[in-house]
UniProtKB/TrEMBL annotation:
CDD domains: SAF_CpaB_FlgA_like (cd11614). Residues 115-228 form the Flp pilus assembly protein RcpC/CpaB domain. It comes from Lentzea kristufekii. This is Flp pilus assembly protein CpaB.
Amino acid sequence: MKNRAVVIILAVLLAVCGSAGVFLYVRSADTRAIAGQQAVTVLVAKERIPAGTSADSLKDLVEQQQMPKSSVPANTMSEVDSSVATLVTSSEITEGQLLTKTLFTEQASLAKGISIPDGMIAVTVPTEAWQRAGGLIQKGSKVAVFDTFTVMDGKGNTPSGDGLSKQYERNQSTRLLLTGLEVLSVVDEKKAAEDGDVGKAIVTVAVKQADAEKLIHGQQTGTLYFALLGGKSEIAPGNGVDNRSLFGN
């Protein structure tokens, strides 16, 4: 009888210990889960914020919210601090969008909603629809620029400098001028896009000084064509083609 009582007591103790172990494990798992979903404070746009809005005027345009830490980008802002106090928004921020420090830029680099990348300048080229991929090129597009020009006599595929001559005895050439340029804006000169017409427009791209010189010179001495680049476009500098080599002759 005595041995039976001891066995019962031991069974109860094991059951209690087992239950305690399960409880502690579950509690530990819950703690780990909560830690993984730790809430952090973020700034969210309450309404549309136009490009060029100064950081110090965002008080009534943003609000703080709590979000799981695991779902928030590393550069998300929790407040408008001194690191952006003198900056302005580099592009439009939509309602409900998280604010990150990458959305701000120096006032001097922003013109009419265009943010010019550091170290670059903006250059504008007038174009027809057929010179910009039928109007498919838009703000943010990556493009290559080709130049068609009259060839200097006896100088291979070198521009003559007198524009694109249409005289039949003159040789013309087309060569890749630049590639990998970012389009900052495309502005229709006549607002024809409202009528569904794709016509003349000015294309503004971001370039280094050396590329700006090439782009401007090419515009003055030939005819430029913007080609829209895809994610896997293959393009490289070369001698191009002229009237003599067009068909491989």
